[in-house]
Amino acid sequence: MNSLTKFIDQSLALHSDPEALTQGEVNKVLDSTQYEVIENEVLMNSDIEGLSISGSLFSLTTFKNVTFKSCVFFGSKIENCRFVGCNFVDCDFQFTNIAFSNFIATNFENCKWECSPLKKSEFNHCGMDTKTLYFVAKEDNVIESCFMTEEVEWVEAPLNEDGKQDPTKTMNVLLSHFGKKAA
User: Fold this and answer.
1) Most buried residue among 22, 65, 159, 176 by CB atoms closer than 10 A?
2) Residue 175 in 3-state DSSP?
3) 57 Cβ partners below 8 Å, 6+ apart?
4) Beta bridge partners of residue 37, listed in sequence order
5) DSSP annotation of 165
6) Per-residue pLDDT at 2 exceeds 50
7) What is the pLDDT of the chain when averaged over all its residues?
8) Strands 57-59 and 77-79
9) At what angle do helices 4-14 and 23-32 cross, to 10 degrees?
10) Residue 14: pLDDT above 50?
């Protein structure tokens, strides 16, 4: 797979002084670089591990029972895709745009999201780690019957001298736990 990352490496390796490139040389490199486009495909029953997917477009593609483990999605676009019974484990999404896709019974475990919006997608019966749920809930997505794949630690409310819980102390403990200051 030729990728955006490979394109950057190629241009630097071809010339000792990247600033000396002429527009014609840049256009030549751009014309010879191919970006992976996966369109109108079905990928079923696969385990994909340690793959770096960079500068690619996935469109109108269905993934069924596919596990992505320790994969990096960098500078890619995933649109109008369906993920049914898939797993994303220890995956890293960087500068990847996911839009108009459907996730059905798909699990996200220990995923990292950096500048990777998930917009106008549907999540049905999905398991999500807290970071994934945070980014999914930020945008205009539909979330139905989803659940957390990790345990959330609860902060125990401190007690007063008389052994009862004090709501003001509880709020202060929560604010300090999450690193936010009261307005």
Assistant:
1) 65
2) helix
3) 35, 36, 37, 38, 39, 76, 77, 79
4) 57
5) B
6) no
7) 78
8) parallel
9) 140
10) no
